[in-house]
Amino acid sequence: MTRNVLIAGAGPGVSGSLARLYASEGGRVCLLGAEDGVLEALRSSVESLGAAAATAVVDLTDDAATRTAVTRLAEEAGHLDVVHFNPSAYREKDPLSLTPDELLDDVRLGVGALLTLVQAARPFMGPGGRITATGSMAADTPWFGAASLGVQKAGLQNLVRSIDNTLKGDGIRAVSVTVRGMLAKEGAFAPDNVARALRAAADQDESAWQSEIAYTA
Questions:
Q1: Where are the beta strands (DSSP E) in 12-89?
Q2: 157: Cβ–Cβ under 8 A, 6 or more apart, which residues?
Q3: CB burial string 45-61: b at 16+ within 10 A, e below
């Protein structure tokens, strides 16, 4: 099955593996990210697999710029089958040093940007469309030393559930995959394996749909 896929927060890790996984099936891969060099390298790897690719450099916390970028890429693609949300902010501060403004800045990227992405992509999605997100065990077992990450991942998981309930009547489903382990170069938590888990979550049977799936070793 060929699909048009939009990946937000695209980079060399899990999102890059996911881009190449979808590219291997054909279709079109649209990449949103913050660094031009990273996007161009990923674009080249996608195109080397025979898929069409398009990129946009954008600060995902900039609502207007992100909406413009999503609309442009979606119009070029014609429609979107899968929208994937990957970004989060890692700030090594515990609750006694983290400021409210820093927390809000991080949540704006790791959670709030999903609202922008979904609202901008929705006009280009139809029945069978899927929204996926990279979750983390930090949602319910946070490390105090990076307190904002746990808040982001808990909020992401919650928001994905709300998005799924909002769109399921239109045949569009949303799911977050909670990665219960540390990402590594090899093994179960290597980016390619996590990407396959995200791909499988998008393909789950709609009659038994789960809006949050745990990925473990």
A1: 28-33, 52-57, 82-85
A2: 135, 139, 176, 178, 212
A3: bbeebebebbbbbbebb
Q: Which two tokens stand for residue 165?
A: 């309930």
For residue range 169-212, what is the model confidence (pLDDT) as tens digits?
999 999 999 999 988 888 899 999 999 999 999 999 999 999 99
Is the pLDDT reported for residue 75 higher than 90? yes
Rg (CA), the chain: 16
> 7 vs 42, 114, 162, CA distance in Å?
11, 11, 20
| Contact yes or no for 149/142 (Cβ under 8 A) | yes
Structural domains in the chain, CATH included, are 4-215 (3.40.50.720)
pTM over 0.70: yes
The tokens describing 173, both together, are 């489903």
Paired tokens of 79: 């429609």
Taking the CB of residue 204, how many other CB atoms lie within 10 A of it?
A: 14
